[in-house]
Amino acid sequence: MTSPLRPPAVAGQFYPADGAALAHQLEASFLSDRGPGALPVRQRASTRRVRAAIVPHAGYEYSGPIAALAYSAIAAERPPSSVLILGVDHHAASRGAALSDRDWKTPLGPTPCDRTLLAALDHPPLEVDEAAHAHEHSIEVQLPFLEYVLPKPKFVALEVGFDRLASLEQIARVVREGVAERDVLLIASTDFSHYVPVATARRLDQLAIEAILARDARRLYEVVTSEEISMCGIAPTTVLLAALSDEPLTARLLRWGHSGEAARMGEVVGYASLLLESDAPLPPPVK
User: Fold this and answer.
1) What backbone torsions phi and psi does residue 25 show, to the nearest 5 degrees?
2) How confident is the model at residue 2 (pLDDT cuts 50, 70, 90)?
3) pTM exceeds 0.90
């Protein structure tokens, strides 16, 4: 029996609820001078090097252009067979690592769950928990971008709650085994510092970004916790880095910015787009 569609929880809040208006705002994100400055290319490369991306998940007005930088790079390459989106547990609704086996709906249409990938990931401590996803926005806001840049994308949603480093490393081991030798793009959804002055956000976020660029999951976890950086997606980002630690990848910062670039405010939220790219073209999907 097919599970019912997971309905959008934040359409009309984080992005427009109307499909045409949503497509227009996506295009505005790509065209923004805070983003790529152009719509995604129509001619894709025949190969793919982007193994993973780290992208923000605030309202599109604020973080959409910075997220678009990563999605523009994804659009320029051979499409992956599947996408794994690691999101935040903002509502403390999961028991640690919650999967979804539902197709998810946005105003642009449904995005189907890749149930083959889901089966590879559905091992303890990961478990299917639809209730944990009911109100969470960090994964949902990535789907319109995926639908815009990829032809008929399939995905798996994985919500990761904050926990001890050892517990996150255990989740990462399951993710590593689940995506091994699969043509999967991994996305960690996170914002960085929350509601601090710009200078503070820049200083603290740089510490976290340096750890990501070093591809050091432990260093990232420890600097965020010791410096009390309000990076909401520390758990999914730590899991992503740990899961891919053995692969020959190079991390690259596309841009750091903040909400004060979109609207005047004394305290801002920090955003960044980063890529983890393979040193050689990633293997094509197995026929």
Assistant:
1) -70, -35
2) low
3) yes
